[in-house]
Amino acid sequence: MTGRRALVTGANRGIGLAIAKGLAAKGCDIILGVRDLAAGNQIAHDMNASAVELDVSDQRSINHAVEAIGTVDILVNNAGVLGAGRLLDDPKDFERSMSVMVHGPYRLMHLLVPAMVHNRYGRIVNVSSGWGAFSDGVSGPAAYGVAKAALNALTLASARTLPDTVKVNAMCPGWVRTRMGGASAAKSPEEGADTAIWLATLDADGPTGGFFRDRKPIDW
Q1: How does residue 189 score in pLDDT terms, banded at 50, 70 and 90?
Q2: What is the reported pLDDT for 181?
Q3: 34-48, 49-63, 132-146, 167-181: which range is least confident on average?
Q4: Cα 61 from Cα 40, distance rounded (Å)
Q5: Catalytic residue among 131, 144, 211, 212
Q6: What are phi and psi of 54, to 5 degrees?
Q7: Max CA-CA distance within the chain?
Q8: What local confidence, expressed as pLDDT, does residue 175 receive?
Q9: Between β-strands 166-171 and 122-127, what pairing exists: parallel, antiparallel or unpaired?
Q10: Distance (Å, rounded) from C-alpha 145 to C-alpha 159?
Q11: CA–CA distance from 100 to each of 4, 127, 172, 180 (Å)?
């Protein structure tokens, strides 16, 4: 994987940072997509990477970030928001959940995938959740599960339109000890990141259009 360029969104902490560090250890050139650029630059300096200011809920921010970084070989759509309350209580919560976890990944894929297709290589990993699986009842707080279900649908539908050289997969990290998951969670960020790192570095014969946890397929 030496020399492959990877953009990881929401990469300043938790699972995103663990994914970035794991890909860096495999020789990838890492770009941390962060909302707080000062903090991101410090993290990037410590791991010999680079950072770009990126708010995935803002189209202008996405445009500026893509213009700044150019092409990438790997895109990990990790940024997320948990929300609170019941689904129909707060339209703003719903809109933000969809913006961060569906519209943002779509817009990044729209802008970055054409070069992957041209270069005949691309790996896209959408960090989803079992809460977004119909098999688990599309659960979770507020609009989180609905947004993750839509992200899963985006994964499956986009994989059908792309050549096999550009692989698109979704993954569930499980319950991870992060600010979102809490201190009681079963997995470390590194354990939660493992499947995403595996999907981001798949060989040419690896899967596409799948949903995985612990490197194993799970039901949509």
Answers
A1: confident
A2: 63
A3: 167-181
A4: 15
A5: 144
A6: -150, 110
A7: 47
A8: 62
A9: parallel
A10: 21
A11: 25, 12, 17, 15
Amino acid identity of residue 141, one-letter, is: P
Q: Phi first, then psi: give them for residue 50, nearest 5 degrees.
A: -130, 165
- 144 tagged catalytic: yes
Residue for token digits 């997969």?
A: 169
- What average pLDDT does the segment 22-39 reach? 97
Chain centroid, CA 152 distance in Å: 11
Give the pLDDT mean for 74-96. 94
Token reading at 35:
């909302």
CATH 3.40.50.720 fits 5-217, yes or no: yes
* Mode of pairing for the β-strands spanning 29-34 and 5-9: parallel
Domain ranges of the chain: 5-217
pLDDT tens per residue, range 1-10: 678 999 999 9
Site of tokens 């570095």? 201
CB 19 within 8 A of CB 198: no
pTM above 0.90, yes or no: yes
